[in-house]
Specification:
The protein has twelve helices and eleven strands. By secondary structure, it is an alpha/beta fold. It has a six-stranded parallel beta sheet, sandwiched between helices. Strands 5-4-6 form a three-stranded antiparallel beta sheet, covered by helices on one side. Strands 7-8 form a two-stranded antiparallel ribbon. It is globular, with a radius of gyration of 25 Å. It starts with 13 loop residues before the first helix and ends with a helix. Mean pLDDT is 88; it is low at 322-329.
């Protein structure tokens, strides 16, 4: 299935491309002007581990300091540090995850300047949603409302049994973990392992992800009225009935084929692409784990996109390597250094440094510093 947000640059009229950032060069100043002028009021943020590093929480993939490079003490299978988040491994050797969870448990860390910047966007009335890959719940500590935060990979706010699926008191699970005991399901006859509702490999993302994704990103919308739809269905039924006439030799086969194609095209011509997000901000993520990694591909082709990261990732035309699953439906990767780039901005900085600079361009420095100090 194709991605309705993908459109070749050559297919987009030049005046439409120029209008995205007012004809200027794609840079952070142009993005700040977009917000200052009130032309970005439904901002969506996609956040990775990079926004929490300054809080003392390691990211996953940075060589040397990342979590995956420092899990030897948990006695994980050699060459497979990610097994600490694999359901099958957890079922047989849960101790490794519980020891890691004890280190990462919320309450030990504070929000970073990047979290406070997101709070500032919300207070300005321009932040639509945050999709976070993090499990640290620092968005909640930054006083961001629950309805705009999508914890794609879950967090420590709730817990459940992996056998019967029943919810379990998170305070009970926390107490067991901190006492170095395996939390077991209290339901009669179960005794299954319990864990916080952190999404493991092999588990589905939180339902809220799919619900909000439909609301925030590109989707095809049928612009026909109910009457037009009913008339179209009635005509389709008429054409279907003519199949019998073709079989009996009473109606021309090629003529019916053309009529069916024209009828199908009528419906296609009434479809349009709608996208609520009018500015995408991506913070501190390698964009290697689907389906979150595909979110930058799913905004409208006229929606500006900014990556705040130490390195450029998710590039147009790049070898996808260990990205899984591979991108499908067309290559909508970032086009930072390409001549035809009209909307993508790369800010190569640590997230905290980047939002400090961004706030300065927006004229919000004092407000951001006040939030950080509070």
């Amino acid at each position: 299935m194709g991605n309705v947000a993908v459109k070749e640059t050559s297919e987009i009229p030049e005046d439409e491309r120029a209008a995205v950032l007012g004809g200027g060069t794609p840079d952070l100043e142009a993005i700040a002007k977009l917000i200052r002028d009130g032309n970005a009021r439904n901002i969506v943020a996609v956040c990775g581990a990079g926004i929490s590093v300054s809080a003392g929480i390691p990211d996953f993939r940075t060589p040397g300091t990342g979590l995956y490079d420092n899990l030897q003490k948990y006695d994980l299978p050699e060459g497979r540090p990610e097994s600490v988040f694999e359901l099958e491994y957890f079922q047989t050797k849960p101790a490794a995850f519980y020891r890691l969870a004890k280190e990462l448990y919320p309450g030990q860390y504070k929000p970073t300047p990047c979290h406070h910047f997101l709070k500032l966007l919300h207070s300005k009335g321009v932040l639509r949603r945050i999709y976070t890959q993090n499990i640290d719940s620092l968005e909640r500590l930054a006083d961001l409302p629950e309805d705009i935060v999508v914890p794609c990979h879950g967090n420590f706010d709730n817990a459940h049994c992996i056998v019967c699926g029943e919810d379990v008191d998170i305070n009970f699970v926390r107490e067991e973990i901190f006492q170095d005991r395996e939390p077991r399901c209290p339901q009669d006859g179960c005794d299954g392992l319990c864990k916080p509702k952190i999404v493991f490999f092999g588990e589905s993302l939180v339902p809220k992800f799919a619900e909000c994704r439909v609301q925030d990103f590109c989707a095809e919308v049928d612009t026909r009225s109910p009457e037009e739809k009913a008339a179209w269905v009635e005509r389709r039924q008429e054409l279907s009935r003519l199949d019998i006439q073709v079989t009996l030799g009473a109606y021309d086969r090629e003529k019916l084929k053309r009529e069916k194609e024209e009828h199908a095209q009528e419906a296609k011509d009434k479809m349009t692409v709608s996208c609520a997000c009018d500015l995408l901000l991506v913070f501190g993520t390698s964009l290697k784990v689907a389906p979150v990694s595909s979110l930058p591909d799913e905004v409208h082709w006229l929606c500006p996109r900014v990556l705040f990261n130490r390195e450029a990732v998710h590039l147009h035309g790049e070898e996808q390597g260990d990205v899984w699953p591979p991108r499908t439906g067309g290559d909508n990767g970032f086009r930072f250094n390409m001549r035809d780039n009209y909307r993508d901005v790369f800010c190569q900085m640590d997230c905290d440094e980047a939002v400090t600079e961004f706030a300065k361009l927006l004229g919000w420095s004092d407000e951001l510093h006040k939030l950080i100090r509070s």
